[in-house]
Structure formats: structure tokens, C-alpha cells
From TrEMBL:
CDD domains: Membrane-FADS-like. PANTHER family: DELTA(5) FATTY ACID DESATURASE C-RELATED, FATTY ACID DESATURASE 2. It holds the Pfam family FA_desaturase. The keyword Transmembrane applies. Residues 77-342 form the Fatty acid desaturase domain. It comes from Sphingomonas changbaiensis NBRC 104936. The keyword Repeat does not apply. This is Putative fatty acid desaturase.
Length: 369
């Protein structure tokens, strides 16, 4: 799951006289890996409604209960403790937007509506901001190219872009309120502004060059309903604060928790891939190797990469497998594949090592650009 809106990061042109980087060797598809992934996971594509509903509803209830507890806490210590619980729970609940883009909605009737009602609209990230966008990231001919809305060669860019990439996410809640409380209503009066809002400010993307096309048919109807709901909520929120009905302190706590959720997701996004592709089309195996798994026995990835996101590389091999079956798929493949298989080269131990790897690449390769 990428971040709201678009970043202001841009590609750095090579310095005059700088040595051009050596071309990367094209990675051929590993037929044994692709065959094993397909054959060993055929029956794992069915989603379990009980797991989805229980996990999502529990996360949402805990997240909002902890948010209220943070606002009502009588001491800073308790407030920070409740805030941490709220951030992690709401982050997990919000991460189900990734599942919405891959699931067959007929198998989980009402789930998308419930997610939007409890998380999408209140958090100002309705599902249309990801549906119709994230699927482009999985297109074989788009991944890692300039047409991929969720890709930037961060490991090859200037070192300062990495902290900027994370810190800019802290402003996401403010940007979303502006997008829905101000730009959406104004865009009804200006076709030109509406075109810009749809193309540039209606997707959870990180590629600043990406421009979204207008939705059509049923997707357009759903978009309209959700955008109206999000705009009404954003305007109401601003009015409640302006009139004093919602205390400023409570509003700032809400914004702080939403900001922390966005930053946590941006950190997770930073280590979801190695970000080493410079725009050329990649084979499926190359896409897998440019992506990241953080499998057990480490436990912390379950918090910062929830709802199956710890198996992000495997997800690129098996995008139709629901999150609760990715662990099973990982164990099956690990048990049968040769130790020299590329499959194991996408497995990493944890967040610090991944961030260090990307930072080192930026320091050594990005500074030459």
C-alpha cells in the first residue's frame, strides 16, 4: 500500500561528466520457481470470510477505542501508550485496502462497504484511491517503469530523498483534508480543476509522474458516492473544530494518530522493494527479487507489515492469494524448492537491515547521479 496523493520527489539528472552506471543484467524468469508457486498454491486462492471480518472489525474497534482513550487519558504516559495501540490497530485496519484491490467482492459481500464506512471515509482514504491504481503496479509490463504508480528508484536517488520520502507522509492527513474539504467541492465549479483532482490527487501513489484516468461505469458510480461521503465528513470535521464542538486538543490528537499511521505505512513502503530498477520492463522473477519478504521467525514485521504485507515479494508471485494464506504458501515453497532457488534471495530478517541496505545503495550509487 503506497501513500496518499503524490510526493514532490523528482529524479536527479546525472552530473555533467559523471560516469554512467553500468547496465543491469536482465534477470531471466526462473521456470522452476514459477511452476512451483502455481502448482503448490492452487487451492489457496479462496478467502475465508470469518478471518477477514474478525480481523478487520477487531482491529477497527481496538483502534478507535484506543483513540478515544488517548483523548481522555489523564497522563502523558497513558496517552502515549493508548496512542501507540491506536496507531497499530488503525494501521492494520487500514491495510485491508490492499486486500480490497485483489479480492473478488462476491466472496465477501458487504466487506468493501463496511471498510469504507469504518475506515476509508473516516480516515479520508476511500477505496477508490487504491482500486484501479494498485492493479497497475502488478501489471507485468508496468512494474518498475514510469507507468507504475507505486514505484520510484529510491535506492538510486540522492540520499536526502529517503528521509524526505518518509517525512512527507506526516503531512498526509492535512493534504487529505484539503483534498476533500476544499478541492473536491471547488472542482465541481471548474472542469480544469476537476481534471487535475482526478489525475493527480485521487490515488495512493508515490510516482509523481503518474496521472490517473477518470473511472467509468460502476467504478465511477462508486467513486462519486465515496468522494461525496469523504467530502461531507472532511467539511463537517473542519466545522466541528471551528465551532468548538470538537475540542482542538482532540482534533490534534486525531490528526497526530493519522499522521503516525501514514508515516508507519511509508516506512513499510520504503522497504517493500529494493527500488533498484531504472525504468526498464522486468521479468516476473526480477520483480520478485526486487521485492521483499520478511518471514518468521521474526515477530515485529507482523506489526509494521500487517495483513500479509510481510510476504510482499511472494504476493507479487501470487497476487490472488489472500493474506491469511500467504504464510502457508511460503512454508510450502520453502519446503520443496532447492536452497539455491531465487525464492530465498527475497527473504530478509527485518526492518533495520532493509533500511540500511537501501540507504547504502543510495549513498554509493545515488551520489554518483
Amino acid at each position: 500500500m503506497a501513500q496518499p496523493m503524490t510526493t514532490t520527489l523528482t529524479f536527479d539528472a546525472p552530473a555533467a561528466g559523471a560516469e554512467a552506471p553500468a547496465p543491469r543484467r536482465r534477470v531471466a524468469d526462473d521456470t522452476a520457481l514459477l511452476k512451483a508457486a502455481a502448482e503448490l498454491t492452487r487451492e489457496l486462492s479462496a478467502a475465508n470470510p470469518r478471518i477477514y471480518w474478525a480481523d478487520f472489525l477487531t482491529s477497527a474497534v481496538i483502534g478507535y477505542a484506543a483513540l478515544i482513550a488517548t483523548i481522555l487519558a489523564g497522563s502523558l504516559g497513558w496517552a502515549l501508550a493508548f496512542a501507540a495501540v491506536s496507531v497499530l490497530a488503525l494501521y492494520r485496519a487500514e491495510s485491508f485496502i490492499h486486500e480490497l484491490t485483489h479480492m473478488k467482492h462476491s466472496t465477501l459481500p458487504g466487506f468493501r462497504a463496511a471498510w469504507n464506512a469504518l475506515i476509508g471515509v473516516p480516515m479520508l482514504v476511500p477505496s477508490f484511491m487504491y482500486e484501479g491504481v494498485h492493479n497497475l503496479h502488478h501489471a507485468k509490463t508496468r512494474y518498475g517503469t514510469s507507468d507504475d504508480p507505486e514505484y520510484l528508484p529510491l535506492a538510486l536517488m540522492k540520499p536526502w530523498t529517503l528521509p524526505a520520502f518518509i517525512l512527507i507522509a506526516a503531512l498526509a492527513p492535512v493534504g487529505l483534508i484539503i483534498r476533500y474539504a476544499v478541492l473536491a467541492p471547488l472542482s465541481l465549479l471548474s472542469p480544469k480543476l476537476r481534471e487535475a483532482v482526478v489525475a493527480r490527487y485521487s490515488g495512493l501513489v508515490i510516482n509523481p509522474e503518474f496521472r490517473r484516468r477518470p473511472a467509468e461505469g460502476e467504478a465511477k458510480a462508486l467513486w462519486t458516492k465515496l468522494e461525496v461521503a469523504a467530502s461531507v465528513w472532511a467539511i463537517a470535521l473542519v466545522m466541528l473544530v471551528a465551532t468548538g464542538v470538537l475540542p482542538l486538543r482532540a482534533f490534534l490528537i486525531m490528526m497526530g494518530i493519522a499522521s503516525a499511521v501514514a508515516v508507519l505505512n511509508q516506512v513499510r513502503t520504503l522497504v517493500a522493494h529494493l527500488w533498484e530498477n531504472e525504468g526498464e520492463a522486468m521479468t516476473v522473477t526480477a520483480q520478485y527479487l526486487d521485492s521483499v519478504n520478511v518471514p518468521p521467525p521474526t515477530l515485529l514485521p507482523g506489526l509494521w507489515a500487517p495483513v500479509g504485507l510481510r510476504y510482499h515479494a511472494l504476493h507479487h508471485l501470487l497476487p490472488s492469494v489472500p493474506y491469511h494464506n500467504l504464510g502457508i504458501a511460503h512454508r510450502r515453497l520453502s519446503a520443496v524448492l532447492d536452497p539455491a532457488s531465487p525464492y530465498f534471495k527475497a527473504n530478509y530478517k527485518g526492518l533495520p537491515g532493509l533500511m540500511g541496505k537501501i540507504a547504502r545503495s543510495s549513498m554509493t550509487r545515488g551520489v554518483r547521479r
